[in-house]
Amino acid sequence: MSRETEAASGSGDVWLVYDGECPLCNAYCKHARVSEAVGRLHLVDAREPGALMDEITAAGLDIDQGMVLKFENVMYYGPEAIRMLTLLSTPSGYFNRISYWFFGGTKRARIFYPLSKAVRNLVLKLLGIRYIDNLKTAAGSPPANAR
Fold it and tell me: In terms of residue numbers, what domain contains 44?
């Protein structure tokens, strides 16, 4: 497959789905990078409807319980998503070095990701930001924390 065909099909790109209303998620995504050799990083706000969110919901992935990274037509969820993003990142810069230390290994990601998620949930609660509830909304019921 040629480079032009890969770029047109988007197969070399990386898609990161995150909560666009979460200040912690926004800060993380603002600094996240992938190596140029991997492709481009596309940030997708999970609160906006779209084909990728439909795919995530159809797969039964609760976006409130974990971010999703799609790379080479594989969806990585929660700690595996952040670990893969870390491994696809450039090795330079303080942010990437810190991220690698916390999330670069499977065991570390499984320890630190739930802690990060707990802090995110606390921040959302303190700020009065409702959960996305993509699975409940897909089932036809209103989100549990609707404003």
Answer: 3-138
